[in-house]
Each structure stands twice: as C-alpha cells, then as structure tokens.
C-alpha cells in the first residue's frame, strides 16, 4: 500500500512538472477534437498570448480564431481544417495566418499540426498542434529583404560608375574608356556622366575610347553622334578613339555619318592630340 501511494505521488509530481513545463513554453500547444471542433487541451490560451483578457476570451468562445483572424486568411484557414480527415500519421500540416491584437494590429501565427489520435475505425479523432508568433521573424525577414534591395541597388550603381568612368587627362581634357556592350540605358548613363563631367571640370575636349566596346555598329554610332551634339552645346569637342578596322568598314557600309566626330586610331593618339590643343 505504501509503495502504491509512493508511486501515485511520484506520478502526480511528474504530471505537475510536465504541466508546468508546457505552461512555460512560448508556443501554444493544443489538442483539437476534430468532431467537436474545439480544443480539449491547451497549455495556454492563444488569446492571452495575443493580449486579451479572460473575459474577452470567454465572450469570443469557440469562435476566437475566426473572430480574430484576418479576413483574407479565413478561406485559407477553412481549407486547412478541411484536410484533417485525410491526414496520414506523421504528416505535418503547416499554415501561416494573422490574428488581430486588441490595438488592431495583426500578428503572424504559424500553426503546425499532425494526427494525435484516431477512433476505432481509423478516422482522425484529435489533432496535436503547435502555434507560435511569427511576427518578429516576418519583420526581420522584411528588413533583410529591404537591405538586400539596397545592397543590390548600391552594387548596380557601383557597376554603372565602373562602366562609365570619367578620367581627367589634363586641364580642360577628360577621357571616358567604354568597355562592353552599349545599350540605350547605358547610353543615357554615358551622356549624363560626360555632360556632368564637362560642366563640373570645365572641359573643352572629351575623349571617348571604344577599344573595349562590343558590337559597335550604326546604332552605337548614332548614340555617339548624340553624345557629340550634346557635348558641343556645352562648348566641348569629342574625339573618338579606338575604332577597329572591322568596325570602321561596317560603319562605312551602313552609311553612318561620323563627320561631326574627330577620330584617332588609339587612345594614346587621342591623348597626344588633346594635349597639343590643351594650353600649357
């Protein structure tokens, strides 16, 4: 008899320890009766975790979730619950939804559920679920996404700067070596950098070197003409350097008019030409 009482006391002590452990967990753990559509166990009321008083929770009754849930998530949640009868043992059912706090703000909750027990004929009887607040995780994720966008934007800006460097050669002379393909977006960037550089440095001559540029054709020639005309409006002369023989032949065959642009075979020759014109 004494041994039986000792065993019962140990069992009560163990059960109290388990209940205390469950109450201290930050997650809401519950057992949901599929047929009665209500919880038969919960370590803590989700409403209390959200900041509602016991009276407010009692008034909402079994409709607590649907009362507090964001309208856009109701259909999703109902579809989620409809999967209970078909769940296999060990299959995890996850869903994220929003619940309203007393102040009107919404917190993201993630529910993870699986079969806890079945009836004698194998039908799902109860569901074991764990719900935890995802709000801070979502906020941190959103902040990381914004930071990633800012980093990408900064990297893109840096690449654009690298792709259109403006180098001062001498007093009143600047050079811009162009490398890679020149599309319309980059053409606009070239124009902006060059015109701002001419204005800022008071340049009278600008060297555009296309030695490293790809696919310099009539379209690119038209872009260079546009740059030349814009520079001339600011009182600067453009000298184009680095046109390769194949490119020169292509430009002649396509009828591109480069008459408005002074050309030199290499950037070095262009610099020599510019220095002769530049005052000592």
Can you describe this structure?
InterPro entries: Bact_StressResp_Reg (IPR051932), PAC (IPR001610), PAS (IPR000014), PAS-assoc_C (IPR000700), PAS-like_dom_sf (IPR035965), PAS_fold_3 (IPR013655), STAS_dom (IPR002645), STAS_dom_sf (IPR036513). This protein has helices spanning 2-24, 46-50, 54-60, 64-68, 71-81, 135-163, 184-201, 218-233, 245-254, 267-277, and strands spanning 28-33, 38-42, 93-100, 106-118, 124-133, 167-170, 173-181, 205-214, 237-241, 262-264. The chain has 280 residues and is α/β, with parallel strands linked by helices. The protein folds into two domains: 2-140, Beta-Lactamase; 160-277, STAS domain (Transcription Regulator spoIIAA, 2-Layer Sandwich). Strands 2-1-5-4-3 form a five-stranded antiparallel sheet, with helices on both faces. A five-stranded mixed sheet has the order 6-7-8-9-10, with helices on both faces. Helix 7 (184-201) runs parallel beside helix 8 (218-233). The longest helix is centred in the middle third of the chain and has 29 residues, at 135-163. The model has no long low-confidence stretch (mean pLDDT 80).
